[in-house]
């Protein structure tokens, strides 16, 4: 029989230890080891059986045990101290407050919108890297004291749980998540009544609860449509992360963007939290938030163009994919149906224009969420330097009159939350007791690892490897039972003294899970070498609709099932945060071999490096900018080979040879004490030198200084209605009159050759037409010139207006010749206004012709 209703009977905690409830419902415990130790002390066996979930622990523990703990003075004191510590953490001045106190520009508050958040395995609302990144963003923002609010959806089934059948084919199941078992609470008003937001979804009213998860200092608002007053289709909007068809996905994104803004307004109203002046759209899923903000400004009495400028000024858009197929694109008819009656002041055609693929090769019948994000966000970024460059190339068509380098997409390289991902024993070594050293960052002395002796460090690494293997054996045994296969071999699977490689990520084809199987016999020789073997641990999920990804997983599983491979290369099903935390510290080498440049960042390698693992990776994503031989190895990327099979074979050859000729000798060459000195040096250098570069705290600081603060300044500059209206009117006039402007002549004192260091005297004649000199910036564009006269490595120089005659204004500049070689020169005019974020913001440029 199946239950018709579910509910939880919550034991009443004794008064002396009642603060356990507050500790359990703030997810700071997930990265605060003393709190985790406290919950484990309640009942170690029960703690493990409930998946290290304090909310479930407090529900399951017996009343008798609670009374015993309430009578234990030492335990009661621990609870009091940890509760006091939490309260201090929630209220203390941290980096953000100190940064603002120095007079630095900071936002009042930030709304951070994401379709998924990977904060803890106890709140399984994530599928992979995007969600884990969002969770790390919240945790780092909390540690730094940012006034940030997260906004997402509460999926009743989360993401799927993975298992394998006997043939190694991925199976999916979607367990029901009860809000009673999750670290969330409904947002209520002063009378204790739950608050509701409503959103029109394809012509019908949909209501949603607002749940709040406390992520340290950061509230995470999560919308839930599973209500009895919604129709069945509406109730299922928040059923699964990335589930259902296109219309289902659109409904989720409407709820996230439009409903998310409304939930944020309710939260600020009832709690007094500062209203955000910056709205961060983490990927395109939440892009519709811009339409809701425009609607709000229209309701306040602004005209449409003014409302758009106010919205754009405070919006930050982050793109996470260099793969066009990874971008959400909806049929135009679906958008028309959804937004036909959204707002009388925002015409449907304007809505459609924001997401239309107007660039060459674009499909005008599709509505592109990344294009929407770029058009409604004044600031945009990729998630590594290489990804920023790839994104500028991918979206250059939106700014066709500008060089690829001028496309207004910058980059903020991702980072990972060290308190979550570094093993506690290693983190303890790094913990700093003073803050008076340049090597101390966020409370940890990253140079401390250099002072740990060889015996201690190698002993710790072997311990971490053994702990990871213990976890892997348990999961392998369970997987065998699910598959209907014998598990007698799992007790001896893997060896704690063997060089261990890890590979764990989504099963997307571009990540090339099976590249290592290119020469299976060679791989077997590496796995079975009598003196210097390797072992490999693999994990990852394929999207339920991705049969190609599933087939790659099956190939790997079937290879691992072979008798001469079993226990030496293993696939662990159901990759999640609970697996990842012991996996990264236990691996010696982390493998990443995507097709470059399709890995936007790839943060799993960052987590491994923080635990002293070397990276063996294609120089893609973050590894492209931070690779150094002290931290690992580069697998050459052979983009010049156009045949994919040939390219895979060539790159696999490098993979094997690096392992054989460089990694194995370094790992297995021991001193007289049995320590691999060269390997230990790499571990130390990776943690001390690379570690600070891959921190989420560094990433969030970069967002504050490079994205949030400038966006807040832009918003503040438009707070005065006259300024916002003036900017909107100015832009409208510039667009209307732009074609009347012509750059008619460019002249220099150069004839053929010029000596380096000489001054170039340049004049540019511009017929301004209906514009004025103050409306434009006339620029000189220098660059290396190729045989087709195309400019590369461009440099921009400003000119100043000198005189005007017969409707022509002359602009002048004196430029030193700093660069040698074949140099090309171009003159152009672009719109110029103090409130524009870049030269290319409006997408308008006029170049000299004739």
Automatic annotation (TrEMBL):
SUPFAM superfamilies documented for this protein: UDP-Glycosyltransferase/glycogen phosphorylase
Domain DUF3417 as annotated: residue spans: 13-123
Modified positions (N6-(pyridoxal phosphate)lysine) in chain numbering: 607
Transmembrane segments annotated in the record for this chain: none
GO process annotations (BP): carbohydrate metabolic process
EC number assigned by the record: 2.4.1.1
InterPro entries: Agluc_phsphrylas, Glyco_trans_35, Glycogen/Maltodextrin_Phosph, Glycogen_phosphorylase_DUF3417, Pyridoxal_P_attach_site
Protein name in UniProt: glycogen phosphorylase
Catalytic function, reaction form: [(1->4)-alpha-D-glucosyl](n) + phosphate = [(1->4)-alpha-D-glucosyl](n-1) + alpha-D-glucose 1-phosphate
GO MF annotation list: glycogen phosphorylase activity; pyridoxal phosphate binding
């Amino acid at each position: 029989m199946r239950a018709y209703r579910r509910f939880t009977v919550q034991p009443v905690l004794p008064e002396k230890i009642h603060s356990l409830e507050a500790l359990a419902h703030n997810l700071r415990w997930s990265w605060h080891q003393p709190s985790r130790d406290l919950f484990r002390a309640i009942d170690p066996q029960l703690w493990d059986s409930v998946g290290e979930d304090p909310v479930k622990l407090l529900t399951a523990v017996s009343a008798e045990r609670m009374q015993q703990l309430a009578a234990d003075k030492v335990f009661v004191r621990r609870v009091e101290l940890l509760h006091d510590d939490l309260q201090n953490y929630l209220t203390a001045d941290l980096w953000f407050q100190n940064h603002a106190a120095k007079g630095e520009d900071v936002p009042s508050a930030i709304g951070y919108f994401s379709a998924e958040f990977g904060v803890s395995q106890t709140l399984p609302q994530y599928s992979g890297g995007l969600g884990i990144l969002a969770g790390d963003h919240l945790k780092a923002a909390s540690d730094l004291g940012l006034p940030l609010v997260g906004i997402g959806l509460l999926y009743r089934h989360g993401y799927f749980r993975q298992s394998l059948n006997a043939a190694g084919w991925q199976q999916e199941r979607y367990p029901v998540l009860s809000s009673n078992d999750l670290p969330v609470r409904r947002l209520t008003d002063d009378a204790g009544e739950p608050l509701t937001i409503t959103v029109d979804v394809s012509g019908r009213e949909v209501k949603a609860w607002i749940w709040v998860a406390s992520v340290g200092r950061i509230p995470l608002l999560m919308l839930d449509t599973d209500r009895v007053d919604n129709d069945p289709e509406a109730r299922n909007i928040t059923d699964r992360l990335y589930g259902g068809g296109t219309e289902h996905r659109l409904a989720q994104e409407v709820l996230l963007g439009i409903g998310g803004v409304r939930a944020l307004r309710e939260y600020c109203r009832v709690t007094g939290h500062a209203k955000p002046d910056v709205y961060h759209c983490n990927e395109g899923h939440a892009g519709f938030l811009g339409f809701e903000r425009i609607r709000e400004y229209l309701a306040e009495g602004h005209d449409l163009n003014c409302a758009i400028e106010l919205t754009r000024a405070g919006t930050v858009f982050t793109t996470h994919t260099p793969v066009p197929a990874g971008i959400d694109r909806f049929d135009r008819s679906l958008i028309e149906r959804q937004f036909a009656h959204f707002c009388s002041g925002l015409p449907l055609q304007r809505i459609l224009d924001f997401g239309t693929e107007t660039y060459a090769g674009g499909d005008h019948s599709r509505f592109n969420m990344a294009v929407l994000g770029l058009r409604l966000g004044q600031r945009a970024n990729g998630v590594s330097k290489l990804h920023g460059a790839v994104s500028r190339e991918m979206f250059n068509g939106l700014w066709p009159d500008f060089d690829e380098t001028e496309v207004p997409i910058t980059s903020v390289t991702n980072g990972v939350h060290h308190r979550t991902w570094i093993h506690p024993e290693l983190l303890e070594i790094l913990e700093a007791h003073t803050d008076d050293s340049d090597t101390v960052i966020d409370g940890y002395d990253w140079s401390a690892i250099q002072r740990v002796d060889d015996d201690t460090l190698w002993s710790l690494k072997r311990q971490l490897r053994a702990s990871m293997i213990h976890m892997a054996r348990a999961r392998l045994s369970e997987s065998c039972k699910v598959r209907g296969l014998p598990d007698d071999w799992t007790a001896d699977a893997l060896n704690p003294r063997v060089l261990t490689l890890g590979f764990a990520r989504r099963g997307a084809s571009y990540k090339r899970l099976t590249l290592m199987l290119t020469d299976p016999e060679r791989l077997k020789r590496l796995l079975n070498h009598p003196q210097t073997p390797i072992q490999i641990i693999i994990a990852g999920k394929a999207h339920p609709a991705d049969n190609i990804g599933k087939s790659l997983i099956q190939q790997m599983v079937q290879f691992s099932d072979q008798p001469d491979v079993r226990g030496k290369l293993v696939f662990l099903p159901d990759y999640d945060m609970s697996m990842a935390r012991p996996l990264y510290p236990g691996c010696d080498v982390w493998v990443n071999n995507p097709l470059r440049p399709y890995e936007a960042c790839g943060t799993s390698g960052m987590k491994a490096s923080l635990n002293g693992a070397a990276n063996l990776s294609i120089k893609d994503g973050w590894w492209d900018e931070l690779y150094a031989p002290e931290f690992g190895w580069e697998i050459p990327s052979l983009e010049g080979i156009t045949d994919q099979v040939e390219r895979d074979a060539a790159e696999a050859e490098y993979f094997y040879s690096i392992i054989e000729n460089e990694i194995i000798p370094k790992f297995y060459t021991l001193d007289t004490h049995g320590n691999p000195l060269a390997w230990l040096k790499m571990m130390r250098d990776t943690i001390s030198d690379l570690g600070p570069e891959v921190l989420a705290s560094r990433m969030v600081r970069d967002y504050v200084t490079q994205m949030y603060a400038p966006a807040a300044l832009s918003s503040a500059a438009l707070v005065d209605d006259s300024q916002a209206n003036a900017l909107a009117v100015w832009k409208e006039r510039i667009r209307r009159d732009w074609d009347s402007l012509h750059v008619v002549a460019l002249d220099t004192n150069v004839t053929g050759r010029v000596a380096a260091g000489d001054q170039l005297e340049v004049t540019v004649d511009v017929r301004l037409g209906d514009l004025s000199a103050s409306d434009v910036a006339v620029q000189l564009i220098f660059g290396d010139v190729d045989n087709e006269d195309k400019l590369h490595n461009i440099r921009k120089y400003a000119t100043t207006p000198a005189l005007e005659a017969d409707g022509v204004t002359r602009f002048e500049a004196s430029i030193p010749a700093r660069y040698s070689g074949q140099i090309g020169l171009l003159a152009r005019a672009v719109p110029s206004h103090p409130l524009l974020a870049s030269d290319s913001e409006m997408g308008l440029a006029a170049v000299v012709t004739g």
